[in-house]
Amino acid sequence: MYDRVDAMQCSKCRREAIIWQRYSGLHLCREHFIADLEAKAKREIRQRRMIASGDVIAVALSGGKDSSALLYFLTKTFGKRRDLSIIALTVDEGIAGYRDTAAARRIAEECGVTWHCVSFEEIVGTTTDQIVQRLGDALSCTYCGVIRRHCLNTAARSLGATRLAMGMNLDDEAQSVLMNALRGDAERMVRTSAPVPGVVPRIKPFAAVPEREVALYAILRFGGFTEKGCPYAHNALRADVRTLLNDYAYRHPATKYALKNLGEHLPAICGDTPSRLRVCPECGEPCGDTCRSCSLVREARGE
């Protein structure tokens, strides 16, 4: 998950290094590693103007390393500000033996924030297991992803959140750009991220931080994580892209940053393509010409 460095000195002091950043060439001790990661996240927040006075930030907390690290970072950085509120929001997809909501609740309590939990069953009346049982697992990630985004937005909006913080890291961002390229999805690659009525704006403070560094940051704060892989993830394109990209980036360390920059600059170069959304009369969520979430839920129910 990360390159641990033994018997090497920190590039910034004489203490023992715990990580080597292949892309920067730096060896960093615990203190300088934490400072470096937090500086990257703060810079991303500042440059993107992610947080403003009066915001209620709902952190999408799965209980895994990425979301746990994000919740800790946000409470550490902004927890004492009286003009901001931070809450934790967990979505239970209804996958037997996969989502450990107790772990998410424990992390939220350790960070001193209020924890909320919603489920697919509660919001859309079905679960991922039920969908797979009825339709098979070939498109399980598609169904689960669309419905999960629907549930996160619905719950965050009902809680009065003005920002929905996601634990996506640099690897996730680079993978998404490459996946869109492999699919030939030009429209998605040039789509603007302008605010859409009814959608709680998403922020990704760790978008410039490599996954292995987020993992190490989480481990240093919370100890080990026993994350179980989703039993349906074997059909996901992202898994193949992750392997391909990691192999290439090992030889070309700046690749993930290059892909992230490409994804950010394309809309400006090609001209903004704003999303044309309306409010779904059935579920009340923003949608295009047809509500994909409602359509998938109806398919899952056999309607």
Automatic annotation (TrEMBL):
- Domain 2-thiouridine synthetase TtuA-like N-terminal LIM, residue spans: 9-34
Per UniProt, which keywords does this protein have? ATP-binding, Metal-binding, Nucleotide-binding, Transferase, Zinc
What's a single GO CC term here? cytosolic tRNA wobble base thiouridylase complex
The record's annotation in Gene3D superfamilies points to: HUPs
GO BP annotation list: tRNA wobble position uridine thiolation
The record, for PANTHER family, names: ATPASES OF THE PP SUPERFAMILY-RELATED (PTHR11807), CYTOPLASMIC TRNA 2-THIOLATION PROTEIN 1 (PTHR11807:SF12)
Protein name from the UniProt record: Uncharacterized protein
User: Which species is the source of this protein?
Assistant: Methanofollis liminatans DSM 4140
